[in-house]
Amino acid sequence: MSRAFVKDAEDADVAELPDRLISEHANFVTAEGLAAIEAEFARVQEEHAAAVAAADRARIAAAARDLRYWASRAATAEVIAPPKDASEVHFGSTVTFARADGRRQTYRIVGEDEADPAKGTLSYVSPLAKALLGKSVGDIVRAGNSDVEVLEIG
Hints:
The structure is a single chain. 23% of the residues are buried. Helix 2 (31-54) runs antiparallel to helix 3. The protein folds into 2 domains: 3-79; 94-153, Roll (Chitinase A, domain 3). The chain is of the alpha/beta class. It is elongated, with a radius of gyration of 21 Å. The protein has helices at residues 3-14, 31-54, 57-76, 127-132; strands at residues 28-29, 78-79, 94-99, 104-110, 121-123, 140-143, 146-153. Helices cover 40% and strands 21% of the residues.
C-alpha cells in the first residue's frame, strides 16, 4: 500500500467534523449563561490557536467544530432579565418543590447550554421545567410518574 494512500485516508478522518447539533428552541440565557457562552468561545479559540501552532489536525478539526457551535450560540443568545416577582415560576426563577416521596429539590430554570441538574439548574425546555413554568406556590404538577408541589419561588 502506498504511503500517499494512507495519508489521504488520515486526512479524510480529520478534515472536518460534523457540526454539533443546535437546538430548535429559542436560545434564552441568563446573564450568567451569556458570560459562560462567551468564556467557552474564548477558551475554544485558545484551544484552536494551540492546535494550529502544534499542527495537530485532529485538534484543529475538533476546535473548529466547537468554535462554530459556540459562535452560533453567542450570536443567537437572547438574555432574559431575572423575573421581577416570585408569584409564579418564570425563566430564571429558582423553584423549590416537594416530591411525593418527601424529597425537597431546588432548581433554577435557565437556558439549555447553562443547564446542569447536578448543580441545581434545569433547562427551560426540560419536561420538569415546562411543567413548572407559570405555576405558583401550592400548585401541584405532574413530573414524570409522580406529582410535585411547588413550595417556594425565588
